[in-house]
Design goal:
Blueprint: H1 4-22, H2 26-34, H3 37-42, H4 54-66
């Protein structure tokens, strides 16, 4: 499992991508991320989703809200 500091850095990068792609504020993107299934799965060490790239994770969150 990544250290909490590395997880926070990853979340920041993912949220930045979400904000840019969806045209929303960073605060809104952060809220969307924290409410997403992707966030829940990323925090579960058994999924190892935290090892996936920032772009992949951002796209997953965006896809959740498009469905």
């Amino acid at each position: 499992m990544l250290s909490p500091l590395l997880i926070w850095n990853k979340i920041g990068r993912v949220v930045t991508l979400i904000a840019k792609d969806m045209g929303v504020s960073s605060e809104k993107a952060l809220a969307l991320f924290y409410q997403s299934r992707t966030n829940m799965l990323m925090r579960d060490p058994s999924t190892m989703l935290y090892t996936f790239g920032d772009r992949y994770l951002a796209d997953e969150v965006i896809r959740e809200y498009q469905e």
